Amino acid sequence: MKRHLLSAGDLTRDDAELILSTAAELRDLADRPIKKLPALRGRTVVNLFFEDSTRTRISFEAAAKRLSADVINFAAKGSSVSKGESLKDTALTLEAMGADAVVVRHGASGAPHRLAHSGWVRSSVVNAGDGTHEHPTQALLDAFTMWRHLGQSRPGGLEGRRVAIVGDVLHSRVARSNALLLQTLGAEVTLVAPPTLLPVGVETWPVETSYDIDRVLPGVDAVMMLRVQRERMNGGFFPTPREYSRRYGLDARRMAALQDHTIVMHPGPMVRGMEITADVADSERSVIVEQVTNGVAVRMAVLYLLLGGNESGA
Amino acid sequence: MSTYLIQNVSVLGGEPQDLLLVDGVVADASATPAEGAQVVDGTGLIALPGLVDLHTHLREPGREDAETVESGTAAAARGGFTAVHAMANTDPVADTAGVVEQVWRLGREAGHCDVFPVGAVTVGLAGERLAELGAMADSAARVRVFSDDGKCVHDAVLMRRALEYVKAFDGVVAQHAQEPRLTEGAQMNEGELSGRLGLAGWPAVAEEAIIARDVLLAEHVGSRLHVCHVSTAGSVELIRWAKGKGVDVTAEVCPHHLLLTDELAATYDPIYKVNPPLRTARDVEALRAGLADGTIDIVATDHAPHPHEDKDCEWAAAAFGMLGLETALSIVQETMVDPGLLDWAGVADRMSSAPARIGRLDDHGRGLEVGAPAHVVLYDPSVRRTVDPAGSASLSRNTPYRGMELPGRVVATFLRGVPTVLDGELV
Amino acid sequence: MCAQERPPTQAGAHSEPPPGRTVLDERDIARALTRISHEILERNKGGRDLVLLGIPSRGVPLAHRIAERIAAVEGYAVPVGSLDVTMYRDDLRLKPARALMRTDIPSDGIDDRVVVLVDDVLFSGRTIRAALDALNDVGRPSAVRLAVLVDRGHRELPIRADFVGKNLPTSLVERVQVRVADTDGVDAVTISDGSDGSDGEAQA
């Protein structure tokens, strides 16, 4: 694997399965009396969050701390005017502090890429979500969750599994990363959305697309519902929230059409009653809470594999 | 005044001959005694008429940290230009006779090339009401080209009025064709790549819809229209169609749109961020063909200097634009001459005569015939050079060609028979 | 990040004869393990409070074999598990990040038990130092013992084995390689001069 984790597309199948199997080992740590490993002792991980995301930041923080790394949280919610300057200046500050890894969340697509390749910092860069581009660790934890439920936690376990990703694909970094990673792992992805919420050029992605959720649901092994952000509701992408829910929401009636083993996922935070109803979110099929648990294990695996060895590592 | 004898030079790519410049005018080398002339060896060089840029951002007044009239015109001279049109999006905006006269005067003082200010179409580029176009036309700057460049005159009624109004003084509206609603927050060409990179898409239709409307408006009111920085295959098609119908429309293409493609956005390096955005290889091909067959009349640089900090940041926060004056001729050689799409006479037309004609300049673009003003570029097409931003005469360094090897080099530029550049260096 | 030391695979291993000079063959290994099993029981006065923890990869099948022998003698099963020490190694930073191997602590834990660590080769002692640290994060055994199939000497830490299958004097340039049927298709301990390019011995 490369020195940075910027895109789920950077991961080979071997890389991805190594992360999943490492995460599987690390997940058991939560059951032990001492939830700590010494692998990153003396390393410094900086959580650099230009956007609010308490859950992702906490997940990375827990992951780094369980590996004994020193963690610095840097909440730099930049103003729109000075945004560019603050990314570079902040990066230089972190470099001066001797950060070994920078976990970055930024509203601008490609900001982690800039951080990694601009020469501002020497540390590893982990993309914790950039604009409408990617969120690779979310995809890894989603894949890990599917792998446990549908793939017996074995290499190749997701081969041929069918996954529907439903909702605002256009603005979703989660959907992009998932589409790339699941394809790498051999799963078949169908993106389901109204045509206004599918990106231009989606036909060149390694996925199927559909406008009709009811036709897709009976055939899938996992269904992932994406959040519909409030600002999209007034953006003219669909007429009303009610119509969206009716056509693309997952409710009890639609859940009944799923196969017995099919799991329901959501990267959170959910808008209950919009893309998913409360009874579905809280049902036995829902692995939404487990996704959070798995997030820590997957992020530990990523940090360990990026920082655990020497830097000149292959 | 001075006399220069350029020996053994290939005028417009033809057989080597001598070229004599006497008192600011091209003289007959065979008839006129060249006594006391300073001799320049033109062996292996091509002589072109001084280049005319219809689209330059000199940034002064307002952003003298990015460029000044002095530095921008120095860059122009080094690129072989003897005239540039300074765009109106300065601070204050060039929307009054006072501002355009100031820019015009600064150009005369700098002396590297002639500066022809472009006037804003609307007050403050706000797209709401017409600026005092007549006052700018009547000023010492003699403005003939009007543009809100950087912003589109998107209101159809306002555009119609502007097209009609400038007829009174033979002006032209140079439209920055960008439908604003379709490009809200847009960052790069909309296509498969923008979807993958998560950068908001800038659809070709946002440019083409405005061009389509404007050529119909121009036809309706019988005005002439100039289209800035055409960037898509569809735009070329529309302009070809309009010209076929007899609409009085001209169009420009920028060097970067002849060479670079949207694939460069994958680096997330904002050095490649420009308005209109870099497009696909298919668009590049159509633009080259359009320039070759005359559908696109001219090459214009859209030279857009930005200070380092405005590019040394994440893509979305960066400024649009790239340098162009010092590399334009090399890129035209690379993309048009070397592939056989255009000969040197064609280059002289697209980069000198035609832009001067559109800008209604009397003293430029008149070729190298005896009696023409002695605006001359000596260009060596045989050398190759690697672009080093630090070597630019511009105050800014935002060239997308950094490290790239390009053909050709401007050896000398003469403005009214006086060298502004000799041996590649400013005089 | 890329896996430098992936767990050995079984594919194709059966046909390859081990390179180098064989110092223990299948029977020798069986005898050694039997003897170790008896010694453990003797020393511990039975197997009731024992937990066997193999150190991956080859310590794990060896631990299972010892457990089978103890069960055969005592008539009850002794808990067996595995303890991956990768993250505790003192040379973690000297190589690219390594894939983790299985840690599997028996469900009743190790508190107040006698833990017998089982590994294939004892060399510098650094792996066992790491194992002791790892064990410390898992629980508090009443005692920790060490069983190894081969002790090749050259200790760099004050560590010794309680139960040794064979003491094997070696020079530092030699390679000692333990193969076990479960992962390598064959039981054998070989020694080579280190120039045949055979994959690394258990670096202990």
UniProtKB/TrEMBL annotation, chain A:
Any GO MF annotation of the entry: aspartate carbamoyltransferase activity
Binding site for L-aspartate: 83, 173, 227
GO biological-process terms attached to the record: 'de novo' pyrimidine nucleobase biosynthetic process; 'de novo' UMP biosynthetic process; amino acid metabolic process
Signal peptide: none
UniProt keyword terms in alphabetical order: Pyrimidine biosynthesis, Transferase
UniProt xrefs under Pfam families: OTCace (PF00185), OTCace_N (PF02729)
Family matches, as InterPro entries: Asp/Orn_carbamoyltranf_P-bd, Asp/Orn_carbamoylTrfase, Asp/Orn_carbamoylTrfase_sf, Asp_carbamoyltransf, Asp_carbamoyltransf_Asp/Orn-bd
Enzyme class: transferase
Pathway the protein contributes to: Pyrimidine metabolism; UMP biosynthesis via de novo pathway; (S)-dihydroorotate from bicarbonate: step 2/3
Catalysed reactions listed for this entry: carbamoyl phosphate + L-aspartate = N-carbamoyl-L-aspartate + phosphate + H(+)
Job description of the protein: Catalyzes the condensation of carbamoyl phosphate and aspartate to form carbamoyl aspartate and inorganic phosphate, the committed step in the de novo pyrimidine nucleotide biosynthesis pathway.
Subunit structure and binding partners: Heterododecamer (2C3:3R2) of six catalytic PyrB chains organized as two trimers (C3), and six regulatory PyrI chains organized as three dimers (R2).
NCBIfam families the UniProt entry points to: asp_carb_tr, PRK00856.1
Protein name (database record): Aspartate carbamoyltransferase
Gene: pyrB
Automatic annotation (TrEMBL), chain B:
Protein residues bound to substrate: 57-59, 89, 275, 306, 320-321
Coiled-coil intervals: none
Domain spans labelled Dihydroorotase catalytic: 46-233
One MF annotation (Gene Ontology) recorded for this entry: allantoinase activity
Residues binding Zn(2+) 2: 149, 176, 229
Cofactor note: Binds 2 Zn(2+) ions per subunit.
One Pfam family matching this protein: DHOase
Keyword Metal-binding assigned: yes
Amino-acid positions noted as binding Zn(2+) 1 in the UniProt annotation, renumbered to this chain: 55, 57, 149, 302
Keywords: Hydrolase, Metal-binding, Pyrimidine biosynthesis, Zinc
Co-factor requirement: Zn(2+)
HAMAP family: PyrC_classI_B
Family listed: Belongs to the metallo-dependent hydrolases superfamily. DHOase family. Class I DHOase subfamily.
Descriptive protein name: Dihydroorotase
Species name: Nocardioides flavescens
From TrEMBL, chain C:
Reactions this protein catalyses: UMP + diphosphate = 5-phospho-alpha-D-ribose 1-diphosphate + uracil
Domain of life: Bacteria
EC code(s) of this entry: 2.4.2.9
Region of interest: Disordered: 1-22
Residue numbers covered by motif PRPP-binding: 115-127
SUPFAM superfamilies: PRTase-like
Every Phosphoribosyltransferase domain range: 23-164
Keywords annotated in UniProt: Glycosyltransferase, Transcription, Transcription regulation, Transferase
Record carries keyword Phosphoprotein: no
Gene Ontology process terms (BP): regulation of DNA-templated transcription
Function according to Swiss-Prot or TrEMBL: Regulates the transcription of the pyrimidine nucleotide (pyr) operon in response to exogenous pyrimidines.
Family: Belongs to the purine/pyrimidine phosphoribosyltransferase family. PyrR subfamily.
Official protein name in the record: Bifunctional protein PyrR
Gene for this chain: pyrR
